[in-house]
Amino acid sequence: MTIPQDPGLCIDLHCHSTASDGALSPTELLARAAENKVTHLALTDHDTISGLPEAHAAAIANGVVLIPGIELSCLWRSRTIHIVGLDFDIENGGFLKALEQQNRNRWDRAAMIADRQSKLAIPDLLERATVEAGGDVPGRPHFARIMVESGVVKNAAQAFKRHLGAGKPGDVKAYWPELPEVVQWINSAGGIAVLAHPRKYQLTATKLRELTADFRRAGGQAIEVVTSGQSSGDLGFLAELCVREKLLASQGSDFHFPGAPWCELGRIMKMPDGLEPVWHHFKQVPGANALV
Q: Over the stretch 248-265, which tens digit does the pLDDT of each residue have?
């Protein structure tokens, strides 16, 4: 699965489907990626690889190379941090067991989010959010849509501002494992651990440097230098961090839903010169044929 060093390729290593909190099914996602001239895509749903079999079939149909991926939640100094795993063995027993525990953590978290919204008196909130999530574990976007449907808020942005965003009752972080444990899950499965969208954590420059150093010491191998919603200043700062910690450089749109031109599949700023791209280190994934 080594990606050739061809500047004409379009590589997107971070996106989501309905298997977690994305709006498109894996089939729809791969079709959209192909329309946007994406040549290599990693589906990185939150804490699950359940969308990969469908995505694999759709990738073949659309002529896109699919890299196994996942986005795992963890804690660093009591903050929720996301780690993308790429190019891992999808049949690794230890990794699959860890994902089962993470799935239980997500259900516990969903139940607590629903419980903390009891004052809103929305009937069957957890059950309705689960239906909205297609029967899988509901995340905050699913709860937001039920709040809109129930007339509690006007739109999803208001739901997050009042009830689900940072510091609000629905902002539940207590169930995630610590960062070194999650990095070890990925490494043990032969994958590459990537620090996802570092500028989205609203950390000071000093704290972000500390996070990146701790991530590298824990065995992390790469950092997302290029992602959606960044300024040129962000890009330069993350490139500096990448060099400073001797990490590989990754990129991805973090696409969730259509209609947001600033966050679209394959629409990624150019990777700065002088960095070592993570895709130069991909290998043939053991067990990849199990997706067929």
A: 999 999 999 998 888 999
